[in-house]
UniProtKB/TrEMBL annotation:
Subcellular location: Cytoplasmic vesicle membrane; Membrane, Coated pit
Organism field: Ascodesmis nigricans
Membrane topology qualifier: Peripheral membrane protein
Keywords of this entry: Coated pit, Cytoplasmic vesicle, Membrane
Protein name: Clathrin light chain
UniProt key word Lipid metabolism: no
Length: 233
């Protein structure tokens, strides 16, 4: 028998104690397994013919409650691994429901899987292309270095040639200047030496101009050894 709380009318009448009753949910057996209860009622209805309808699943349903109780023992009874207040005091090792089935992993090979043929062919083509590009790049690099070195050599060669020519030309002009200066002060009449220092060409001179008349006069004095001042001072 289970107790129940008094109703409002009973509470108003002063009834405050729990009332014993046999019609509560606990007394009706609702805390039992509904599937097992259903099978029990079916067996009672069928009678002797109930064995004709028994299957393997019936035993699993009937033993389900026992398996649950064995897996999850009641907290009310003594349990050496459960302390006061529901504290677990057993081993700290993880719960293993059963032996690990290693057959499921037996088919998995530890060796690396071989690459498919298309992938290997692609890798080989990629390697050959990279090698070809590297060779072309190396050839171009060598050609560029050779051209740069040749350009540098040509530059210095031309520079040295031009420098040598310029030095030689300067020396020649200096020597000619010295020779012409000596000629103007030595040999011939005074008018001949003067004519060497003057440009007697008629280039750019207009006919009848003073420059033309001066040139003609200087030429006549240079040819005349008896001209005034021809013998010098």
């Amino acid at each position: 028998m289970a107790s129940r709380f008094p109703s409002i009318e009973e509470f108003d009448d002063g009834q405050i104690e729990a009332v014993q009753s046999g019609t509560t949910a606990l007394d009706l057996g609702l805390d039992e397994d509904p599937q097992a209860d259903f099978l029990s009622r079916e067996k009672a209805t069928l009678g002797a013919d109930a064995d004709l309808f028994v299957t393997e699943n019936d035993n699993a349903l009937l033993s389900g409650g026992e398996q649950f109780d064995s897996s999850f023992p009641s907290m009310a009874v003594g349990n050496e691994q459960v302390g006061p207040g529901g504290t677990v005091t057993g081993s700290a090792e993880p719960y293993l429901p059963g032996a690990l089935n290693t057959n499921a992993y037996h088919g998995i090979s530890s060796e690396p899987e071989e690459e498919p043929e298309p992938v290997r062919e692609w890798r080989e083509r990629q390697r050959l292309e990279i090698e070809a590009r590297d060779k072309v790049s190396e050839v171009r690099k060598s050609e560029t270095i050779e051209k740069a070195q040749a350009a540098i050599d040509d530059f210095y060669e031309n520079y040295n040639l031009k420098r040598d020519k310029a030095v030689e030309e300067t020396r020649r002009e200096a020597q000619e200047f010295l020779d012409s200066r000596e000629n103007t002060v030595a040999g011939g009449t005074s008018w001949e030496r003067i004519a060497k220092l003057v440009d007697l060409s008629d280039k750019g001179a207009r006919s009848g101009s003073d420059k033309t008349r001066f040139r003609e006069m200087l030429l006549s004095l240079r040819k005349d050894e008896k001209a005034p001042g021809a013998s010098g001072f």
